[in-house]
Amino acid sequence: MKAWNTLVTALAYREKGTSLALFRIFISLTICGELLTTWWSGAASFLWHLQADGGFKEVISSSHWLFSMLGGATTSTVDGVFSVALVASMMVLVGLGTQGFAFISLVTLQALFSLQLGSGGGHARVMTLALFGLVLAASDATLSLTCRLRTGQWTSDRHVPAWPRYVGIWQLTVIYVFSGSAKTSPHWLPFGEMDAVYNVLLTPVWSRGSWELYIEPFYRLTQLSSVVTMVWELTWFVVPLMLLWRASGRRWAFDPRPLYLGLGLVMHLVLWVATNLGPFSPITLSFYVLLYGPEEMREVVGRFAPAGCLGGRET
User: Given Cys at both, which of 79, 168, 175, 300 links 290, Cβ 3.0 to 4.6 Å?
Assistant: First the structure.
């Protein structure tokens, strides 16, 4: 009964919508940027069109129910679904009809990724996972066009259910811990070669350039990075454990978030700059804002930004 009451209390808790709003903005910015880049570079037509229309396959098939309803994955239906995905993602970005458009973006992106399994990858799953979270969350209570139309201001102190933020923290934890548990080869482990990061930076299919001359003097540092990355991912559960412990009213010796987020920021920025892993880094970093509640967020941002930039008057 005590566990049930704790769960009910957690689900009923409400907070200002700042953290969820920033999560919405960062996620949708990443998705819009990826879709526009895919279209501008010609990768969209190459991956998802027939050979006669500039693609690389004679037959494009999909088992996704959306294309079945549309009569198949023809060039016109693919372009239509792509356009809807882009518009829906932009609506999520500005925060208008967010939950409905997040669902539309989720479905259309899943349909597009189903055309070529290699066109998505792990980051595609994180994208759709984040969008599903936005379907459940009231993420447009502030920093949105909805807020502007409702209050005449871009920001608001309106309270929203906090549990979607907790779910996002749990999702990030699962991603990292399972990723760390998969790093069992000697290329990651101490007393092995510990050259996983070094090899990734030099593998042509992943690397953005020829880094041999630049990283050779730092080989030992890349070995240390391999081990630190594995340990950092495996122990990420410390962060939500600390938050849960503090939420119960008990004291925690220190706040591990700056350490874990700092290491994560460095790791993802290096991957983003030096390797071609798609939007994996920005889409994952978007989850980081969920680790700080609205009041903590306002306290941190308030040191560098004008007062009132993250909140208005409405409650």
Answer: 168
Q: In angstroms, rounded to a whole number, what is the distance separating the alpha carbons of residues 105 and 84?
A: 8
pLDDT (average), residues 60-73: 90
Distance CA(220)–CA(166), nearest Å, equals: 38
Residue 124 corresponds to which tokens in the numbers above?
């595609």
Give the length of the chain. 315
- Provide the β-strand partners of residue 160: 15
Cα–Cα dist 33/27, whole Å: 10
Look up residue 276 and give its two tokens: 């071609």
Residues sharing a CB contact under 8 Å with residue 289, sequence separation 6 or more, in sequence order:
19, 22, 23, 26, 297
Separation of alpha carbons 77 and 82, rounded Å: 8
pLDDT tens digits, one per residue of 279-300: 989 999 999 999 999 988 777 6
**Mean pLDDT in residue range 173-198:** 93
Are 226 and 197 spatial neighbours (Cβ–Cβ below 8 Å)? Answer: yes
- Would you give the DSSP letter of residue 42? T
Cα–chain center distance at 29? 10
Q: What gap in Å lies between CA 150 and CA 169, rounded to an integer?
A: 29
Q: What is the pTM of this model?
A: 0.92
Compute CA distances 293 → 6, 20, 142, 247, 296, whole Å: 19, 9, 14, 11, 5
Look at residues 88, 114, 113 and name the one whose alpha carbon lies nearest to residue 102.
88
Task: Look at residues 159, 104, 103 and name the one whose alpha carbon lies nearest to residue 136.
Answer: 103
Cα-based distances in Å from 111 to 46, 61, 68, 128: 16, 11, 10, 11
